[in-house]
Amino acid sequence: MAVRACGLIIYRRLQSPPSAKVADGIEYLLLQTSYGTHHWTPPKGHVDPGEDDLQTALRETQEEAGLQASQLTLIEGYKKELHYPVRGKPKTVVYWLAEMKDCNTEIKLSEEHQAFQWLKLEDACKLAEYEDMQATLKEVHQFLCSKE
């Protein structure tokens, strides 16, 4: 059976001058794991028994980044499933998109992570080593820009 994990791709909009493009003010939250290869990823984790996918994404975000569901706005119309092998076993990760209500909210990391960064798309893609994560970030960015 495939391992299943769920998470949120979290972004914030910085106040930018009226002449700036909306896309220029968007930053994405990535967390650096404190285990393994210390890769960078949005908050995510395994589904617990009896939990639905979105509950898992919200719980993991609270555990890993200290963010409550009430501090986020879930963005309608975006949900992404990634499929890839981990140690020879299939894994499915489901991501939703969420915007920070207050871009100055403090991030409180759990022991699972050692660092976090708010990054513009280009820098987020550099840190997210995996191609499917890079592609997902670009897709999210396009999605957000197309909604303006």
Chart the SSEs and their pairings.
Blueprint: E1 3-13, E2 26-33, E3 40-41, E4 44-46, H1 53-65, E5 72-86, E6 89-100, E7 113-119, H2 121-127, H3 131-146
Parallel strand pairs: 1-6
Antiparallel strand pairs: 1-2, 1-4, 2-3, 2-7, 5-6
Helix pairs in contact: 2-3
**Relevant CATH superfamily of the domain at 24-117:** Nucleoside Triphosphate Pyrophosphohydrolase
| Rg of Cα set | 15 Å
* Percentage of residues in DSSP E strands: 35-45%
Describe the sheet with the most strands. 7 strands, mixed
From the structure provided, what is the oligomeric state, counting identical versus distinct chains?
single chain
Judging by the overall fold, what is the CATH architecture of the domain at 24-117?
Alpha-Beta Complex
Coarse morphology: globular
CATH topology of the domain at 24-117: Nucleoside Triphosphate Pyrophosphohydrolase
CATH class of the domain at 24-117: Alpha Beta
Task: Quickly count the helices.
Answer: 3
Q: What class, by secondary structure content?
A: alpha+beta
Mean pLDDT: 92
Question: How would you spell out the order of helices and strands?
Answer: EEEEHEEEHH
Give me a quick take on this structure.
The protein has 148 residues and is α+β, with helices and mostly antiparallel strands. 24% of the residues lie in helices and 39% in strands. The model has no long low-confidence stretch (mean pLDDT 92).
Task: Describe the 3D structure.
- Its EC number is 3.6.1.17.
- GO terms for molecular function: bis(5'-nucleosyl)-tetraphosphatase (asymmetrical) activity; nucleotide binding.
- This is Bis(5'-nucleosyl)-tetraphosphatase [asymmetrical].
- The chain has a domain of about 90 residues: Alpha-Beta Complex (Nucleoside Triphosphate Pyrophosphohydrolase), CATH 3.90.79.
- It contains three helices and seven strands.
- Strands 1, 2, 3, 4, 5, 6 and 7 form a seven-stranded mixed sheet that branches.
- It is of the alpha+beta class and about 150 residues long.
- α2 runs antiparallel to α3.
- About 25% of the residues are buried.
- The longest helix has 16 residues.
